[in-house]
Amino acid sequence: MNVNTRTNDVPPGAAADQHYGCHEISGTVQAAERLAAILTYPPTKGRSSVGTSGISLQFEIIALVVLCVILAADLLYVTKRPHIPSMKEAGIFVSIYIGLAIAFGGLIWWQAGPQLGQEFYAGWITEYALSVDNLFVFIIIMARFSVPRKYQQEVLMFGIIIALILRAIFIVLGAAIIEQWSWVFYIFGAFLLWTAWNQLKDEDEDEESGLVSKLTSKLPISKDFDGAKLRTVVDGKKLFTPMVLVFVTIGMTDLLFAFDSIPAIFGLTKSAFIVFTANIFALMGLRQLYFLLGGLMNRLVFLKHALSFILAFIGVKLVFHALHENQVPFINGGEPLHYAWLDISVGLSLLVILGAIVIATVLSLWSPWGKRAAANAEATAVADAAEHAKHD
């Protein structure tokens, strides 16, 4: 396509779009620079921290700017060209984003050494697995509210943006808390162990639905969607559309998953930069991955078991780390416990995380137990859909 640079040949609407796009990218660059400054201060004492662990501050700022620009470009692409991506398009984008994450980890490995390189890969894989689980919940939410397929990309982008904002807030808070109080690792570890158990029970969805109903019970909601609008007019009355319920539910889901994911990755690395970039890469391509995984939701039946195991493993690792740096007076007289087995290496953590995901995937797709569980899940999904249609 030929690009005409003469201003008088550009339609006013297009010029406005270009102007808006430039401001979006410029604002994203400034936001990334401010974020880098926040993550750089204060430095973490005695631990790998931003700008002090072999990763130069210049590299961190450039990386954050580039990653935020990529996310902003993806957002602009969705708003300018809302459509249902083909399997080929979704597969290409997902492959590109995964390739970028692998290359970025290689850059960190090359610049800062194998320790931080392994921490990035372990953190990214963990966050990616948790994001896939989050994505399955998004699929359920879309089906429950019967969101038209052509508007699902916009809902997904909203979910990804909210997830990124919440995780950025929790990362900054988590880094500051860890800096001041090392005993917080006991709390993080216990929380992850509780989350791992709760993951197996799978009860959060009903609790979340009840909370959303309470929050939106007083809102005048229209029966039908009006495109992707949040407000509409029916018989002269201004009403909220069901899209409001979808956004509130997605936001609540993001909040719950942020509570799980941030303590998990701080159990693998203490670098706020690694934590944030691993989360960005875990969120990249989720919009396209959504359309690839829709048919696999009832097939990956053992994924939640793998995630439960990973969260429990990281929870134990956090408790071991807390014991290794113990300052709590009523535990060993306030002295650290110096046992070699308390120090679980990042390399071992990476192998455990990868192994759990691979085993869960193989068992889900190819084992007799997985096929039987998938068939039961499919039958349950069909029955639920029929029941939902009956109520509608």
TrEMBL record:
Which of UniProt's keywords are assigned here? Membrane, Transmembrane, Transmembrane helix
The topology of this chain with respect to the membrane is: Multi-pass membrane protein
User: What transmembrane ranges does the database entry give?
Assistant: 55-78, 90-110, 122-143, 155-177, 183-200, 239-259, 271-293, 305-324, 344-366
- Coiled coil (residue ranges): none
Answer whether the UniProt record assigns the keyword Membrane to this protein: yes
Q: Which organism is the protein's source?
A: Glutamicibacter mysorens
UniProt keyword Transmembrane helix present: yes
- From the Swiss-Prot or TrEMBL record, state where the protein is found: Membrane
What InterPro entries does its record include? Integral_membrane_TerC, Integral_membrane_TerC_rswitch
Name recorded for this polypeptide: Tellurite resistance protein TerC
Which family is this sequence assigned to?
Answer: Belongs to the TerC family.
